[in-house]
């Protein structure tokens, strides 16, 4: 069993309009934009990062906004719901805020003894705010949400799979423990994790496979402290039979990727070096940062990328 995994690192999704995406996560949800850069493989497209003050692993939602992307088709083999942690007693505040902002898909439900407020993002993404007792992480309060209600980071993710068996085994190998199962949903928690330490698996045997597009989660990343821990995880996964990529430098973390038995793309990312490596913490996300290999494209990108602010 692996002991290096600390919980989630980030969740990366697909979007259409970059400005609408930025407005939703900063103005509506009150998160901080901690980095604006570009897709390593498609530099004409932004890679936007939102989270807490410093982009702490376990708080960071990231997006690739492709202007002409088709809407994704929900189904099996993907992350179904991304769960954010909020303080106990704050769902009333959030329901009123989201209603005022015209956010669709609002509904409340109990899940494993806790309350959740579900809502839909600008591209049809499915999110939920979950009241979590004892989450001591500090939320970002610079965008109009006070500290008593601010999002603390992720609680976790919920996967939709046709068959949960092999992915459940993988999660347990990664250090997660199965703690409950209700109504076709199995709940896994990482003991001693970083707060973003929940994964649920919803089993849908007859579901159509998902189609990647706007509103789809591209991958979910798990955190390790450093490159040494990452290499240990990579070797263990490879020895177990998984096809794992080489280590890739993503500027703000190092990453490896592998496809799970249920079809979801997993990443394992380092907590180092972080988002302050090329910007002062006080000014994170304010200026366009480019990977070295795309630095020569700056004049073109600054002219053609959609402005993020209204």
From TrEMBL:
Residues 7-132, 153-271 form the VOC domain. Pfam families: Glyoxalase. Transmembrane segments: none annotated. PANTHER family: RING-CLEAVING DIOXYGENASE MHQE-RELATED (PTHR36110:SF2). This is VOC family protein. It comes from Ectorhizobium quercum.
